[in-house]
Amino acid sequence: MSTIAEKKSLTDQFLNLYRDRADEISANSAPLLNTHRDFAVKRLGQLGFPVKGSEEYRYADIESVFRNDLEKQFGENKVSIDIRDIFHCDVPDLDTNLLLLVNGRYYNDGQLIKELPGGIIAGSLAEASRKYPDIIEKHYNNYAIGSKDGLVALNTAFAQDGIFIYVPKGVKVEKPVQVVNIMISDNDLMAQHRNLFIAEKDSEMKIVVCDHSLSAQRFLTNSVNEVYTAEGAQVSLTRIQNEHNGSAQITHSFSHQETRSRLSASTISLHGGFIRNNLFVTLNGEHAENQSTGLYLSDKGQYIDNFVHIDHASANCFSNQLYKGVLDDYASGSFTGRILVRRDAQKTNAYQSNNNILLTDDAKMYSHPQLEIYADDVKCSHGSTMGQLDESALFYLRSRGINHRESRLLLMFAFAHEVIQNIKVPALQERIDDLVNKRLRGELSRCNNCAMQCG
To answer: Into how many domains does the chain fold?
Structure first.
């Protein structure tokens, strides 16, 4: 069967699924979210699924993870246990406002929407679209709609719920908001959720997103996040991916920044069988700043792929990409980083760096740093490195009485810490240091006390 026929077949499967279950999908969501589905289905039919070897998915075999026979749930969560009985975040001194997302739907503990001090709103996206339609309508699908990725259209067509966080003008959130995304089921399962984070003018917030799988089944998550950072607002967004090897996770994040806004986004990929992270940032106002960092640790056939696109649409903006990876055994990965500087975006400062350590001859990493510049008064640079540990540094540590294994671990940890130090929540930064240290030593190191020890 040809690649085109396979692509069409997979696309048709989901188009037919939507037609068969459209009433159920809409009935278990919210009217405002439903208004976007028909156009999304049309876009999915036009775009289809990404194909391995295409410009933006050169090495990621998306079709293989979607072709698994996975259950799709469009009704209420079929979870017969209390999630809070088996999940307890054990990050010391991490004081957060906790929101749970289970199998793509907000975990209802009796309160779908939390109204926190200062007018902060957090909770179910579906419920928020009913209670605050003016806010949701202004932003929902406004930043993702232009995507040419069929998986974004797929999410818009099927997503029924997710997390909504809103910070009003001038409000500074004292405690970080922690979003825990849990996959748990007796059957192999696919979930698609949608998150919307809004920081109004001169506000500040910190968000921590933790991805976990709490049972041994095969899971696939296709999620979309939209982040709006208004004029003068400051947002810190940290994501920790820590799922088992039977999981596949595809994330799409669309960040829109206005004048003088600052957004710091860190993605720490500790564990997962297949991970593809897509990040799109638009710097839409002068003097906006963006810091995007990522750390990925993989072994035993895991695949981790990061795609980053920074669009400098206004003058006098700053962006920095720093992505680092440590690959062991026969793991593989890919990084594609793009910087687009538009014609009117003079005085742009943009930097990009991707560095990788390959611990074995079987580990593979592909890196594609790219610049696309249409302005003439800019400072831009990009670079990529791949190799093994520095032998001279190893020799120096050995000469100081440190054994070979510990010397290697110290160098790898120092390599990784350059990314970890960008995490804006001190307690979390300390815990991630510990997790990375354990991960480099070959330990599973889940960052939750889970009663279900699924490998």
So the answer is: 1
Q: Classify residue 98: in a domain, yes or no.
A: yes
Q: Is residue 133 part of a domain?
A: yes
DSSP class of residue 421? T
Distance CA 305, CA 52 (A): 12
Residue given tokens 């991916």 in the structure block: 241
Alpha helix stretches (DSSP H) within 93-225: 125-131, 133-139, 150-158
Residue 450 lies in a domain: no
- Residue 81: pLDDT band (50, 70, 90) is low
Nearest one of 148, 154, 189, 162 to 17, comparing CA atoms: 154
Tracing tokens 């279900």 back to the chain, one arrives at 452
Tally of CB atoms within 10 A around 403: 10
Strand-pairing partners, residue 92, are none
Q: Bridge-partner residues for 16, per DSSP?
A: none
Distance of alpha carbon 227 from alpha carbon 221, whole angstroms: 19
* Number of other residues whose CB lies within 10 A of the CB of residue 304: 28
Cβ-based neighbours of 298, under 8 Å, separated by 6 or more: 269, 304, 325, 326, 327, 328, 331, 332, 333
Residue 453 lies in a domain: no
Range of the domain at 89: 3-440
The 10s digit of each residue's pLDDT in 393-417 is 777 677 777 777 788 788 888 888 9
pLDDT digits (tens, 9 = 90+) for 271-304: 999 999 999 999 999 999 999 999 999 999 999 9
| C-alpha to C-alpha distance for 59 and 360, rounded to whole angstroms | 20
DSSP string, 321-338: EEEEEEE-TT-EEEEEEE
- Coil, strand or helix: which one is 154? helix
Handedness of CA 101, 102, 104, 107 (dihedral sign): negative
CB 212 within 8 A of CB 87: yes
Can you list the pairs that 380-383 forms with residues at least 24 positions away whose Cβ atoms lie under 8 Å? 380/339, 380/341, 380/348, 380/349, 380/350, 380/351, 381/350, 381/351, 381/352, 382/337, 382/339, 382/351, 382/352, 382/353, 383/352, 383/353, 383/354
